[in-house]
Structures are given as structure tokens and as C-alpha cells.
Amino acid sequence: MLVVFYILALLTVAGALSLLLVRNPVYCALSLVGSFFSMAGIFILLGQEFVAAIQILIYAGAIMVLFLFVIMLLNLRSTEPLALKITLPKTVGLAVTAGILAQLTSVFSSPLAKLGPLGDYPPERLAKEGAVQIVGDLLFNRYVLPFEVISVLLMVAVMGAVLLAKRRLPAPPHPSAPLKEGP
């Protein structure tokens, strides 16, 4: 089980790194989808099948379709082949990120690391009430305003992408305008 977790974690990090290093926006979006699927696998290992299903349906499905739609609408295809372009700032950034990740891994894998309080939803309450009911209650009661604000924000983003991608056609000549004669 631990080996599967490490494989999924490695795939998630690899997808996130390829998202940063690949220049073609379509390949970036597809690597993000792969990263979302790997995170869904991690949620399944944690016993949170509902969260994994939401991860796949909402993020890997709807949001990525929206991203790909905007990429295709804006015609952001790259003409150069799939290539990794590694520069000094990217290398330094990756080294710093790797150092921070190594430090966090050593801190949280230490036997001295202890979990904090479980908050309002300990495993006993989740087992008694059900995770789906709790998520639905939180989403549509306590956090309904942020949920609706995000939906409006996504709609405005799509409308903005459509307006940016709309090509202006030249105005047709007026019927009373004289025709141009050749040289």
C-alpha cells in the first residue's frame, strides 16, 4: 500500500513539474490532468472515495475541459516540438523547491511529528454522519456564497476568453463607395 502511495505521489509531482517545464499549453493541460488523476488515487488510498470522485469529475473533467476550450479558442498552440527548456532561473527554482520538499518530508516523516487536533470532523463523526452529507451541508449551507462567487468568476473568465479570441473582421465596403480600379 505504501509503495502505491509513493508511486502516485511521484506521478503527481512529475505531472506538476512537467506543467511548469513544458512550453506547449496543450501538453501542460494534459500533464495537469494526469496530476489530478494521481491525486484522486491518493484520495482513494486514504479511504475518501467521494473526494476522489469529485476530484476526477470536477477538476479532471469540467475544469480541464474549460482550460482546453480556452486554449483552443485562443489558438495558443505552439509551433515548436515538445521540448524542455531549462534555464538558470528554472534550475534555481527547482533546486529551492526540492530543498523545501526534502525538509518538509523529513519533518513530517519524523517519529517525533504528532498530529494536531482533528477539528470539527473527527473520523468517528464522519463514520456516523457520512462524508457526503457533511460535504454537501458545508458546500450548500456554510460556504454557499464562495461557491457561487467561484462559479460566476469562472463564467466571467470564459466570457473574457471568448471576447479576447473574437477576431475582428474588416467592415464590408459601403454600397455607395466607388470601386477601386486596378493600376
Q: What's the total count of β strands?
A: 0
Instruction: Estimate the helix proportion, in percent.
Output: over 70%
Q: Which outline best applies?
A: extended
**What are the secondary-structure elements, in order, as H or E?**
HHHHHHH
Which stretches of 5+ consecutive residues score pLDDT under 50?
none
Calculate Rg over CA atoms. Answer: 24 Å
Q: What share of the residues does DSSP label as strand, in percent?
A: under 5%
Reported by name, the CATH topology of the largest domain is Four Helix Bundle (Hemerythrin (Met), subunit A)
Distance between the termini: 80 Å
> Which CATH class of the largest domain applies here?
Mainly Alpha
Structural class: mainly alpha
CATH architectural grouping of the largest domain: Up-down Bundle
Give the CATH H-level superfamily of the largest domain. Answer: NADH-ubiquinone/plastoquinone oxidoreductase chain 6, subunit NuoJ
The largest sheet is:
none
Number of domains: 2
Rounded average pLDDT? 79
What does this structure look like?
There is one protein chain. The chain contains 7 helices and no strands. The chain starts with a helix and ends in an 18-residue tail after the last helix. The radius of gyration is 24 Å and the shape is extended. It is mainly α and 183 residues long. Helix 3 (49-74) runs parallel beside helix 7. The chain has 2 domains: 1-107, NADH-ubiquinone/plastoquinone oxidoreductase chain 6, subunit NuoJ (Four Helix Bundle (Hemerythrin (Met), subunit A), Up-down Bundle); 122-167. The model has no long low-confidence stretch (mean pLDDT 79).
